[in-house]
Amino acid sequence: MVILLRLIAGRVLGRDMEPGWEKELVVWVPAVLFALYQPAAVYTVSILLELPLVLLITTAVYLMTRLVDSTHQDRVFGGGMVLPLVLGAVLGLAGLLRGTALVLLVPALVLAAGKAGGNAAGRWNRYVRALLMLGAVLAVLAPAVIHNSRIAGRLTGPTLNAGVNLFIGNGPEANGFYVAVVLGDWRHDPAGRKYLAEKRGGPMPSLAAADRIWSREAWRAMKGNPVRTTGLWLKKVWLHLQGWEIDQLTPLSGWRKAAPVLAWLPVPFTLLVALGLGGLAGRWRDPRIRWWAAVLAVLVAGQSLFFVVSRYRLALVPVLCLVATIGAVEILRNNRRAMIVSILAVLITVPWGLESTRTLWRAQALVNEASRWAEIGEAEDSAAARETAENLYRESVASKAAGPAPWLGLAALLIDRGEREEAAGILTEGAAATSLNLEINKVLLALWLEDGRRNKALELTRTVLADHPGDADTLHNRTVLLAEAGRSAEAMAGARDLIGAHPGDPRGYIDLGIILAREGRHKEARSVFEQGLAAVPGNPLLQRNLDLLDH
Q1: How far does CA 475 lie from the centroid of its chain?
Q2: Which CATH number covers residue 474?
Q3: Taking the mean position of all CA atoms in its chain, how far away is CA 69?
Q4: Does the N-terminal or the C-terminal CB of the chain have fewer CB atoms within 10 Å?
Q5: How confident is the model at residue 71 (pLDDT cuts 50, 70, 90)?
Q6: Using CA atoms, how far apart are residues 34 and 265, in angstroms rounded to an integer?
Q7: Together in a domain, 363 and 342
């Protein structure tokens, strides 16, 4: 990254300067700004995707800068046709890592087909360059597209997570940030396949089918309320520019505690945006600067279709470092336009109206950090790590603003320590604090079932089903508890509710068949088991219960 930013800065910023320390300072400033931007240091070492992605995007910017400057003969890439091929391959590789990077193909194609930098090539050669670039992109993407399409049984893209991300950014619960619309463990099921199966009452869809479902639901929400969709998109454009660092997977506060040296990386995002917009305004007549502006614009526009977190904004940072350096130079030259725009840009970077959101995300950052310490405690059997995790969970719980995660995490630690009564209290309090959260109540229900507290568990199932009448796990547990209590008629009604809501779930047929069999109604039980096998062919538990009727 340092070398690439140095190359680009030397090609643009240092071209018209006399050799000396001032020129060396200016051409190294972008690299220094990037190196001193704290999130870059964190994300490029903690999330493996980010470093190669940012490296590829910066390489694309470098190649586009050469394309702007190139004549018919490029000293490095030769004859004018190799450069578009290389640029296309780089964009294709970036698109494999994150699909939104492909939006850079728009300015790149326009640049290749246009009269860039005074290129004397004819119209035919310009079109050939654009086609070569497009061909290189498609050649890089082709193996992934063919592989995914073969598995999906239809033409699909190089990745299968666009649908769920589009829904997170535009669905009914969308607010511009990441929202947990998929219940369950996203680490093992990021596409929400289990959640979709439970919600739709059918078998678990494939990754391609899940992507299609999420995309369809997202577009339905977007087309159903285009004014809201446009407003959300504009909000996400602004979130790309405001100065608050939006954590997601890895909280920056936790990293600063673990590595105090990060405090010595002082460059804020506000500085990059304010000086960067000032630099664009101050040197707008330079065609290379206008193309850098185009890169920033299409990246922001494309990424704003989804949702915004700081690690996604990292793709903007290399170009922002370049234009921020220009902004600083222009301000030192008393360029009034650069000064005025930089001052106004500071107002854009203020996180207006986001205090409640920031409180929520600070609490969630504590949860993420606590989760890591809990995993360390389990892996290393470390009491100190568990204590750190517990303290962080309790600090997050105190805010009552981070959803179910801190309550569940704290309860899990207490259960592991044998403090099951306190864990039940924490879960009860958490369910009330998060509007009877289904996930918390299901964990509490499992705890009471394990402890043999049948009456409390039965009452909880009634409470849960009042808000979530179609939850399969709770319907099954209530049926079993009612049957154990001798309330067969209610139990059979619960089993039929489960079958009606989830015809692909074998538990409903098993529960109903067993209750009927215990009452001596073997013919009806056999019919239910056979009905279940027709709905869930080959299910071993259904087949076993059917076989038991013959003995």
Answers
A1: 32
A2: 1.25.40.10
A3: 37
A4: C
A5: very low
A6: 10
A7: no
